[in-house]
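Appendix B. Raw example, untouched.
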Amino acid sequence: MPHNLSSRIDTPTNISLSAAVTVADSLEYKTISVFLVLLVCCVGIVGNIMVVLVVVTTRHMRTPTNCYLVSLAIADLTVLVAAGLPNVSDSLTGTWIYGNAGCLGITYLQYLGINVSSCSITAFTVERYIAICHPIRAQTVCTVSRAKRIITGVWIFTCVYCMLWFFLVDIQDGHVQCGYRVKRELYLPIYLIDFAIFYVIPLLLAIVLYGLIARVPAPLPSNPSQEKKGEVNFCQKTLKFGDFKIAFALQVTKMLAVVVILFALLWMPYRTLVLINSFVSTPYLDSWFLLFCRTCIYANSAINPVIYNAMSQKFRSAFRGLYSCHHFKSLVTFFVLPSLKVKML
């Protein structure tokens, strides 16, 4: 996915999203590319930072599911900062300006963010399946402490796995581009493994688990007339409370299912292009389609906070509370403190 990698035919093209030189140098392409990337990245960076802040600073938001969402938000931030923002300078200058260390580090962070994002989605999918289909077991399995241990394991595994990229990329073309140092034939097995572990398997697992979740019957609506007549006994009230918990869990699950669906759809253009270019003799590298693929990838890392705000009342309230709190503090800092200093003088 890294934008900085060379798009020459003799290099692997599964991740290369660089545009052809003639189009990339045009003012129209540069303007649209920079505008789209900056817009998506700014929205995504602000949104994902807010997700992290509301979960960390709000006690009732510290749930196992939200722990995975924090991991996903940090991974998406890594993608936007390491892939999106350098793409702006690359579009403006047409050359790689970060040196060999930047080539290695930025490529590593790009893959780290992409792979952790996929693993985080898989983790909360499994957590949702256990919470809905095995609610009794979930009381001991789906805990915040266990979620933190799983997230730590995911990041450690992915950090080690992505170290492979330190040996696969290097500065090329007279320090103009950051590209692969191996031929396509040597890289193909690595790509296929990466494609299977971080895209195909998570989506297949999500299809199976969300299919099983969909089979769980929705809670029956309550009968107000019975409640008025006092015909609802203690056991029925207990069941009603349990149904409320199931209904809330299903609502959260629907939100996360949308996250998974968008992950599949927004990564599909790039993954399809990569799959085709890995086997054809002449890769398809249309500049505008490559820009479309890049924008979809960045949008995937930016859209999740929008989904949380649209589909979760808790996140909406937490976002408003975070904004109000910081807005109030800024007003106090700007207006009250200077007046106090004047009075003291």
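End of appendix B.
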